[in-house]
Design goal:
Number of helices: 4
Strand content: 15-25%
Helix content: 25-40%
Shape: globular
Bound molecules: zinc ion
CATH architecture: 3-Layer(aba) Sandwich
Structural class: alpha/beta
Number of strands: 9
CATH topology: Collagenase (Catalytic Domain)
Largest sheet: 7 strands, mixed
Order of helices and strands: HEEHEEEEEEHEH
Mean pLDDT: 86
Distance between the termini: 48 Å
Length: about 230
């Protein structure tokens, strides 16, 4: 057995142990994908340039509705009600664009993220260029998403545009909760990042910025990708 095979066997063994320990209700090995949302102050994308492009992760949910739980604890003075409302608006943007009843809210919590629950929460990420990280767990064989967590970087300043997508949003030195969570919720759906500048107006564009609110609304490519997964 060569070194590569040993590594694969070890990883498989570790995964099995992990699943047994966590009592995850699936019988197949589970893998995960991690999406890191970086800030990109350097780019100045052309306004209004949209494409109908999307990129699928290759896995999707098969049991609905998918409920998510929000831990609203933050150090930016955002109220629990406002955070909950804006996270819900973010998930609803996707839900409203497919006939499938995708998401159901699991409510608010003060508990730490847990295995088997889809959590949205703030947690520290050392790299201040990372706005958020979404981790998606899926079964290796049937490519079914079984869990997804969204971690917002607690080291950054977060804000809420009270009126939704407003041009000239005043919180220029904060990351808008709804804007970023809408992008991350796209990963939860099964969509991957797009990095081409021509995709910069799409919600699934892989970079985000301070005061940005344009990801609140889905564009043609975002909706096309969603519908490819879950129907019109
Ligand atoms: Zn992303």
């Amino acid at each position: 057995m060569n070194r590569w095979c040993v590594a694969v066997v070890l990883i498989a063994a570790l995964l099995c142990v992990g699943i047994a320990g966590a009592e995850r209700p699936v019988k197949e090995p589970v893998d995960k994908l991690v999406f890191v949302h970086y800030k990109d102050a350097a780019r100045a994308p052309p306004a209004g340039d949209q494409t109908a492009s999307y990129k699928l992760m290759g896995m999707k949910w098969k049991q609905f509705p998918v409920s998510y739980t929000v831990n609203t604890a933050n150090t930016c003075g955002l109220t629990a009600g406002a955070v909950g409302e804006n996270v819900q608006a973010a998930f609803s943007a996707w839900d409203a664009s497919t006939s499938r009843a995708l998401f159901g809210t699991g409510g608010l919590t003060s508990a730490a993220p847990a295995v088997g629950r889809n959590d949205v929460f703030w947690g520290p990420i050392e790299d201040r260029n990372v706005i958020a990280v979404t981790t998606v767990w899926y079964t290796r064989g049937s490519k079914e998403i079984v869990e997804a967590d969204i971690q917002l970087n607690a080291y950054l300043t977060w804000g809420i545009d009270a009126n939704g997508e407003v041009p000239g949003y005043a919180l220029a030195n904060a990351y808008d909760v709804r804007n970023i969570v809408t992008h991350e919720a796209g990963h939860v759906c099964g969509l991957a990042d797009l990095y081409a500048v021509r995709a910069s107006e799409l919600t699934m564009y892989g970079y985000g910025g301070l005061g940005e609110v344009k990801k609140d609304s889905l564009e043609a490519g975002d909706v096309a990708g969603l519908r490819k997964l879950y129907g019109a």
